[in-house]
Amino acid sequence: MRVYNFSAGPAMLPLPALERAQAELTDWQGSGMSVMEVSHRGKAFIACAAHAEESLRELLSIPSDYRVLFLQGGATAQFAAIPMNLTAPGAKVAYIKTGQWSGKAIAAAKAQAVSVETVADESASGYTTVPAADQYVVPADAAYLHYTPNETIGGVEFNYVPEAGGSPIVADMSSTILSQPIDVSRFGVIYAGAQKNMGPAGLAVVIVRDDLLGRARPTTPAVMDFTQMAASGSMLNTPPTFSIYLLGLILDWIKQEGGLAEMAARNQAKSEALYSAIDSSSFYSNPVVLDARSRLNVPFTLADPSLDGEFLAGGEAAGLTNLKGHRSVGGMRASMYNAMPLAGTKALIDYMEAFARGR
């Protein structure tokens, strides 16, 4: 039985894409082999990777002066790759800190010998807020401004794109990419781990503007060098072939379902329903301020924390899995990416209401 998987990642994936992969697993395109067994240099897989890139460009309306890279190491590798590719040692960079993931990106940048200026830090609120657009100033000499549009652990999300003056904006969109339309032209670099909306863990997608290529430090490993990877079509080494293949299937599913506008409408409907249930209850609460609430990751607590274990066990029995909050935050967390249907959110709400009535 398929369950409703509320994991923050690796996350629930679209069943039609998984079923197609299952059907093709041992005999891909009549080759008598799995896609995991064919050569990444062969015409069939090169066409497969090209299809994934073309579909991504279509869905996100990526301008022609941006490269799309399929890299390994997830988003965490990009925490270090960004300063390696965009700065020389000692350069000034700007970061907005809204939670643990932006904090990890800051730590990785500092390890690359750059001068990190944290232009906004929401620690005073316990990372339950994002800064107002007029609360911070990006230094004119900053090589870039980095931010995390959605923090999966704390459940906070920006409802605007920051202004950075003349500095390129770098965004870690691991949990938001493909969840709604975006204007790619406003960013210098977008990077995202695949394990939320795009496929299995391990793959990272990087979208980088052409004028930011050619800046990598000489010491940058080749597989982390955007310029070298762009020149090789992301095949400087053996790429994560199955992840790229599955990304293509998921992008096909998104197009068939109506594209990013439809994904955005569905995600909004799910989050509004769950927040409404939480806010109307005296048994559940959400700590995030209203204008910073994530559409995709909804943390909540029970009035009596001693009931957490019982709540989780009952949820598992009802087919509602991975609701335990991050270990650093506690409580519960419902992550509802594109593949989570509204029916799953409604099943969670029904369970929450029944559990509260029984107490």
Could you walk me through the main structural features you see in this protein, from its secondary elements to its overall organization?
The protein is α/β, with parallel strands linked by helices. Helices cover 34% and strands 16% of the residues. The protein has helices at residues 15-24, 43-60, 74-86, 100-110, 226-231, 241-257, 259-279, 308-317, 342-357; strands at residues 4-5, 66-72, 92-97, 115-121, 145-147, 150-151, 156-157, 169-172, 189-193, 203-209, 284-285, 297-302, 320-321, 332-335. The chain has a seven-stranded mixed beta sheet. Helix 1 (15-24) packs across helix 6 (241-257), helix 3 packs across helix 4 (100-110) and helix 7 (259-279) runs parallel beside helix 9.
Task: Give me the secondary-structure topology.
Blueprint: E1 4-5, H1 15-24, H2 43-60, E2 66-72, H3 74-86, E3 92-97, H4 100-110, E4 115-121, E5 145-147, E6 150-151, E7 156-157, E8 169-172, E9 189-193, E10 203-209, H5 226-231, H6 241-257, H7 259-279, E11 284-285, E12 297-302, H8 308-317, E13 320-321, E14 332-335, H9 342-357
Parallel strand pairs: 1-13, 3-4, 3-5, 5-8, 8-9
Antiparallel strand pairs: 2-10, 6-7, 9-10, 11-12, 12-14
> pLDDT under 50 segments (min length 5)?
none
Strand order of the largest sheet: 2-10-9-8-5-3-4
CATH homologous superfamily designation of the largest domain: Type I PLP-dependent aspartate aminotransferase-like (Major domain)
CATH topology-level fold name of the largest domain: Aspartate Aminotransferase, domain 2
Order of helices and strands: EHHEHEHEEEEEEEHHHEEHEEH
Average pLDDT, all residues: 97
User: What does the overall shape look like?
Assistant: globular
Distance between termini? Answer: 29 Å
CATH architecture of the largest domain: 3-Layer(aba) Sandwich
Q: DSSP helix count?
A: 9
Structural class: alpha/beta
Strand content: 15-25%
